[in-house]
Structures are given as C-alpha cells and as structure tokens.
Design goal:
Elements (H helix, E strand, L loop, with lengths): L2 E10 L4 E11 L15 E2 L5 E2 L5 E8 L9 E9 L13 E5 L7 H6 L1 H10 L4 E6 L16 H12 L9 H18 L11 H14 L5 E6 L1 H12 L4 E7 L4 H6 L9 H15 L11 H17 L2 E4 L3 E5 L1 H13 L1 H16 L4 H10 L4 E3 L11 H14 L7 H12 L5 H8 L26 E5 L7 H10 L4 E5 L17 H13 L8 E2 L27 H5 L3 H16 L8
Parallel strand pairs: 3-5, 7-8, 7-9, 9-10, 10-14, 14-15, 15-16
Antiparallel strand pairs: 1-2, 1-13, 2-12, 4-5, 5-6, 6-8, 11-12
C-alpha cells in the first residue's frame, strides 16, 4: 500500500489563532473515497461519465467561456452524479435533478460526493439522477477564480478579509474597507488570462442549459439553496420555457442581489438571534446552560461579555491549537449559530456560560469546529483535490461581477454599512464580504440582471423559513410575485424554534413530502400551507435521534414525536437530521 505524506496547517491570522499538525504519513487507501484526480479527466462537448468517489460518477463538460463569442476560449464545468436506481430506459426514470448548494462559491461536487447525495436521493425518490457541479470559476471547474499566487499567500490573507467584526474597534470599518481594496486590486492584477469577467450568474445559468442538453433533455429540474435561488431565478427569467421543475429554497431577493444591496437580506436576522434568549428562557436552567429568568438578563450578560472581550481577549491553549478568544471570534460564532441554531445554540449556551467565568476554551473549540477548514497542503500528491479556499474567491468573482458597481470611496462604504446596521446588529459580520468589491475591476455590466418576471413552463415551488437570518420569508414572497403560478411553502414550528438558513437545516416531514410530491408528480402545495418541524433547539435530555452523529453535533427529536412516526418516516427524519448536521461542513455564510 502506497504511503502519502500529508501536512495540515491552519493559519488564521485574525484573532491570533494557530493550529498546526506536523506532516504525517497516512495510508492512501483511506483516501480513495475522498479523492479523485480531476486533472486527469478530459473535458468534452458530451458528458462522458467516469467512476470517481464511492458510488459516484464524474465528468467535465466543455462550454463557451464567453457566450457572445462561443468559438473562442472555452470553460470546463466539473460535474458529479449519483445515478438513479431506475434504469434510464425504464418508463419510471425521471431524469436528472440539478442541485446548487449556494454561495456563491460553494462546491456542488463536494455537496453530492458524500452522504448528502444519498440523503437527497432518499428525499426526492429513486427514479432521479442527483447531479451537481462546481460553477464556472469555482473549485474544480476551470478557469478558476484565483487572486493569490500561492496557497500560503491565500491562507494568510483571506481570513483577515472574512473574520473581523466591524464593531471590534474604532478603526475596524476603515480596516475592512482597506482590506477589500487590496482584494479587488489583486483580483484585477492577477486576472492573467482575462477570464475573470466571464464568471457571473448569467453565464452559469447558460452553463446549466448546456448541462441539461448534454443529458439529452429539453427542460431543467432544479433545487437551489440560498445563492442558488438567484441562479434559479435567473435561469427561469432567461429561459422560462425550459422549466420542468424548479425549487428555490432560502430565497434571496434577486433584484437586491444584482443591485449590490444586502439591506433586505438581514430583515429577520435580529429576530433569529433574539430567539436564542427567548428559547433559553423557555427551556429553563436544566436545558440551557446560559439560563436567566428573562431575555433582558441574558442580553445584558452577553453585552457584559462583549465589553470584557473588547478590553481583554482570553488566551486559550488547547491540545492541538492555541489562540485568542476576542470580540470578533464571538461575533463570528454567533453569526454562524443563527444559520443553524438547532445544532449550535445548545453548544453556544455553555460556551457563553464559560466565557462569563473567564474561560474561552469552549467558544474557541466551537469556532474551530464550524469556522474555516484547516489549510491542507498535500505535500507529495500532485493529484490532490483543489483547495477549499478557491471557493471563497469564487464568492467575490460572482457577486462583484453581478452587482452594480460598488462605490470605491471609504465614505460611501461607511454610509452603506450604517444603513445595513440600522436593519440588523449582525451587519458587522456580513459587510466585510461586500468590501471585497470596492476596488473591483471596472468590467462592463452587460450581464443579465432582471427583470425577474416570467410565465414559466411549469410553476416554481418556493420555500422559505419564518425567520431566516439572511434570506427572509419576505424575499420568497417578493420573488414569487414575478413568477406566474408559483407557490410559497413556509416552514415553521411552535415558538421561536425556526431560525435557520434554508429548509434543509432542520428536519420537517411536511416540507419534504411536499417537495417530493412536487418533483415526482408535479403537485404544488396549496397556497398558505405552513409546515412544522420535528426537532427542538434546547431538547429534553431524553430526546433522541437514530443516526449516530458526533455528540456535539446531534440534532435531537423528542421521543414522543418519534413514537408517532412510521418506520419509514423515522428513517426519513433520521436522514434529514443527518443532512442538517453534516451540511455545516460545506455551507458557510453566503
């Protein structure tokens, strides 16, 4: 068995976090399920599928780089497929469903190559191929958006762009603007082949049509999450007669996205965060470690922690890592928590309780668990997977190219931040991302950016949560107005237990049975239906879940609820819970 030397290094220059594991020898046999030599896979005009990850097939599709000049340079789109259990020659076979997990910049290949693909197949049914792709400019698709000449340069600089709270210090806003200016300058200077301007949503929508036609189909079946809803809405507006089925889930207001305006994205963000205190009070001291009798007392305690961390960060020396717990780190964990409260809120409560006593270890470990993945240098393997960090550069490539020109001046940036801050206190963690566009190259804004009004060949199913931190239900309803016959299905639960991003962040039999009926039978739910969920944020100690996840990542379902379910439904809840807990490894804010 061949031995491969692999070194993993995490360099997070923000907050002084360092995690280093020395180059270690690992058996390549254990890597076969997670690696594939994409650089040896040829790109072609037709889909030529090759066995890749376990029970998966991969391909590269050649598409025009510039659809206005298709005979010139080409791009290569990396695809992955989990085949239907039904023969493609059977009358029961329903073709591919194309999945986009969001971002912009999230890898569809990564999303489908693990257990997520199998879970989606269980939700949707055995007669579909589950297909996804890395959008142009991202990860394994080429040309790739890359602003850094070396992986080490990327690992040292990118965290400083993403991780600082704009409320951390007196000069934090100015520093974010300055870092964003450098990022935009690097993007323009290192666009060596001139491909950067062609990485945008319109071209990705056209790539999707090429994927559909390469499958021998005329119409698209699609499920898109978060930014994937912008991609879906763009496709539907551009090609309204090419819709077989389309679900957009956790909906971004595409009009605002293309305008470069994130204000309405945070309409429900404070409600999502405030629910932590409300849920904690309702749960009581036995279930919430940061309990206080009132939400005001919990909020006051959190403010006291903020004040102490601004004045004096807490040093943490763990077994494999060390660093500082400071104000920005706490804000980052809180922002991640409102994305997935069923998973992170129960862990955040004891971390806050420890912080109140001056111990930052639990918060530090939370950040390590859900923050950026370690930078991995696959020292001796030229066929290694491309780095996760390339997806981050893809975010700016797509958003900055799509959006109206973001003003370059500091005063304009500060004014925009104040406007978003008036909507949500969590603006301090989202506005640094927008700063990456302030010095973006001045490419022509000729790509499609609306209007999002169409009479599609099949009505869209639009899914929204009652209090999503970055894609509010109001955006789902707004986008539905433009697509004739579309229906909004709301996912909800008793109290304040639904504050997560997209419907796959918590199991709901109601939601996913409607989803399956839509894809399988073309049956839309009645307008106004509100679906409940199965889990609780602060569960009782005797709650349980069938899947054997990490004790720190388990999403628990009350036993009384499980007892009401059939064996088939229990299995579905189990797999939906697994999807919700595992998907955090891939899906980061925006």
């Amino acid at each position: 068995m061949i031995q491969t030397a692999v070194c993993s290094i995490l360099l997070l220059v923000w907050a002084g976090v360092v995690q280093v594991s020395e180059c270690a020898t690992r058996s390549s046999g254990s890597e076969d399920k997670v690696r594939f030599a994409w650089n040896k896979l040829l790109s072609s005009d037709e889909l030529s599928w090759t066995k890749c990850y376990e029970n998966r097939e991969c391909a590269k599709l050649k598409v025009p780089l510039d659809y206005a000049n298709p005979e010139k340079a080409s791009a290569s789109i990396a695809l992955i497929r989990l085949r239907s259990k039904v023969s493609p020659h059977s009358s029961a076979y329903r073709g591919p469903i194309l999945i986009n997990p969001g971002g912009p910049g999230v890898s569809g290949v990564d999303f489908i190559r693990g257990a997520y693909g199998d879970i989606l197949a269980l939700i949707l049914g055995p007669n579909f191929d589950i297909v996804s792709f890395d959008p142009r400019g991202i990860r394994r698709s080429t040309p790739v958006a890359s602003f850094f000449d070396t992986a080490a340069e990327r690992a040292l600089w990118l965290p400083s762009i993403r991780k600082y709270s704009l409320n951390a210090s007196a000069n934090a806003v100015a520093a974010a603007w300055a870092r964003g200016t450098i990022l935009g300058q690097l993007a323009g200077e290192r666009d060596y082949d001139g491909s950067l301007r062609f990485i945008n949503t319109e071209n990705t929508a056209r790539d999707m049509l090429q994927i559909v036609e390469a499958h021998g189909r005329e119409k698209l079946s699609y499920w898109g999450f978060s930014y994937g809803t912008v991609l879906g809405a763009t496709f539907a507006a551009m090609f309204p007669d090419k819709i077989e089925r389309m679900v957009i889930d956790g909906v971004v207001n595409s009009n605002s996205f293309y305008a470069g305006d994130w204000t309405d994205s945070l309409l429900d963000a404070d409600t999502a965060w405030q629910s932590f205190a409300e849920d904690c009070v309702a749960a009581g001291p036995s279930r919430c470690a940061f309990y206080a009798p009132t939400t005001a007392e919990i909020s006051s305690s959190i403010q006291a922690i903020y004040t102490r961390l601004r004045q004096r960060p807490i040093p943490v020396r763990g077994k494999t890592s060390y660093g500082l717990v400071d104000f920005s780190m706490l804000r980052e964990v809180i922002f991640l928590a409102v994305y997935a409260p069923y998973i992170i809120f129960p862990q955040l409560a004891p971390a806050l309780a420890s912080l109140a006593e001056g111990d930052g270890t639990a918060l530090f470990e939370l950040d390590a668990r859900y923050g950026l993945h370690p930078f991995e240098c696959n020292c001796d393997n030229e066929d290694a997977e491309p780095p996760d960090e390339l997806s981050q550069e893809g975010f700016w490539a797509v958003f900055c190219n799509d959006a109206e020109r973001i003003p370059a001046g500091y005063d304009e940036f500060f004014k925009d931040y104040q406007g978003i801050l008036a909507v949500s206190e969590l603006a301090d963690m989202i506005e640094p991302l927008r700063a990456g566009c302030v010095a973006w190259p001045d490419y022509p804004k000729t790509n499609f950016r609306g209007p999002f009004v169409a009479n599609t060949s099949f009505p869209l199913l639009i899914l929204g949560n009652t209090a999503d931190p970055v894609t509010p239900l109001a955006s789902a309803k707004k986008m539905s107005e433009g697509f004739a016959g579309s229906v909004v299905l709301t996912q909800n639960c008793v109290g304040y237990y639904l504050q997560q991003h997209t419907t796959i962040s918590v199991p709901s039999l109601c939601t996913h049975k409607h989803l399956r009926a839509y894809f399988q039978d073309g049956k839309l739910p009645e307008p106004g239906i509100v679906c409940e969920v199965e889990a609780e944020v602060f569960p009782l100690p005797d709650s349980e879940l069938d899947h054997r996840g990490s004790a720190q990542r388990v999403m628990r379902v009350p036993k009384a609820r499980l007892a009401q379910l059939s064996a088939e439904d229990r299995q579905l809840v189990d797999r939906l819970s697994e999807l919700a807990t595992s998907v955090l490894d891939l899906m980061h804010p925006l």
